[in-house]
Amino acid sequence: MKEDREPTGFEMAVYDVVRRIPKGKVSTYGAVARAAGRGSARSVGSALARNPFAPEVPCHRVVRADGALGGFSGHTEGPEMDRKTRMLREEGVEVRDGAVDMTRFGAGLE
DNA sequence: GTTGTGACGGGTC
DNA sequence: CGACCCGCCACAA
Q1: Where are the domains of chain A?
Q2: Which of A61, A93, A95, A104 is a Cys-bridge partner for A21, taking CB atoms 3.0 to 4.6 Å apart?
Q3: Beta-bridge partners for A28
Q4: Architecture in CATH of A9-105
């Protein structure tokens, strides 16, 4: 188990970017990292894995560059992932075999 | 300061 | 198209 801790400046920057992802669209870890102005896809993933602002921060709208969902609530597989998929569909995002069509649902964070 | 880890990404084979 | 490898950057010990 990872010990709880206060969010760092970098993590807050990531949450701020993710928070403004429009409903019905998704973004990628790499795009968020660029939008935050620093860090990388790995860093963003680590930050969201500790996301203490759910559901205020829609971490479920952040997926991998290849369209795969990535993870949710600290899990990369299991029932938590099903929940993430359902949430996306709820917002109008088409999820096909655990992946999203980035060419149609990719947010304009690029 | 060094080492290991991770919800990643892109390139090569 | 899958397996493999390397680079990436922030964080904890």
Answers
A1: 9-105
A2: A61
A3: A63
A4: Orthogonal Bundle (1.10)
